[in-house]
Amino acid sequence: MKFTLRPHHILDIIVQFGGKGMESFQPHPYGHAVHTVAQSILGNSNCIVKLVAEADDICAPCKYLSPERKCTDVITAVQPPVSKQDYNDRLDQQILSILTIEPGTELLLDKYLKLTFIHFNDISEVFVHPNQDGNQKARDFLWGLQQLQYDIFNDLEKLFLE
Ligand code: SF4
Question: How far does the centroid of ligand 1 lie from the alpha carbon of residue 52, in Å?
Answer without folding.
Answer: 14
